Amino acid sequence: MAKTKSPAKPKATKQKLAASAPSLPAAPSAPNIDIGIKVGDRKKIADGLAAFQADAFTLYLKTHNFHWNVTGSMFNSLHVMFETQYTEQWAALDDVAERIRALGFNAPGSYREFAALTSIAEEPGLTNSADWREMVRQLVVANEAVCRTARKVLDVADDADDAPTEDLMTQRLQTHEKYAWMLRSLLA
Question: 39-69 and 75-102 are packed helices; what angle lies between their axes, rounded to 10 degrees?
């Protein structure tokens, strides 16, 4: 059976078909954010939350690092304690980022952004078997730094009557104050 070529449609016909196709309506744009907090206040809160997230992420990394690298007589206890703390901290990071997004801003998410925003100094030299006491001391200091940042955000959120952010920062303060206390008790 011989194949027959189907006749080619002229270009003009294709263009006419495309022109006569019904155009789709433009996608609706998102409405402006109107949650009862002025845009300037939302920006201040989001900036504070970004600094908090950077501190919390830096603390998370430090805690996880120490979990991997702790040695000595307190190995088992600290290995388990650090894992409990970094696991909880990891879950909380998502809540902070989602609050920033709910306020209408992008959450920081890169090492560079976190390094620029954090108040927690990276203390190099701990890759050579740091003593567990130094690890615990650093985690006390870092948890307290996270608390100070949370208090700043809490004040800004309070001024703007932002109850969800106040609640989030209150929860984080309770957690990090408890971690600082528990860790400090190991050094007494």
Answer: 160
* Residues 160, 179 contacting (CB under 8 angstroms): no
What pLDDT score was predicted for residue 22?
64
For residues 136, 176, 154 and 57, what is the CA-based torsion angle, rounded to 10 degrees?
A: 70
Residues with pLDDT less than 50, the chain:
none
| In contact, 144 and 119? CB cutoff 8 Å | no
Among 144, 142, 143, 165, smallest CA distance to 155 is for 165
- Give the Cα separation of 77 and 55 in Å (integer): 25
Residue 29: its H or E element: none
Number of alpha carbons in the 13 Å side-chain half-sphere of residue 96: 32
Q: Are residues 107 and 117 in contact, defined by beta-carbon separation less than 8 angstroms?
A: no
On whether the CB atoms of residues 136 and 176 are closer than 8 A, the answer is no
Residue 170, C-beta contacts closer than 8 angstroms, at least 6 positions apart: 154
pLDDT at 29: 76
User: What are the residues whose beta carbons fall under 8 Å from the beta carbon of 154, sequence distance 6 or more?
Assistant: 165, 166, 169, 170, 173
DSSP label of 114: H
For the entire predicted model, the pTM comes to 0.82
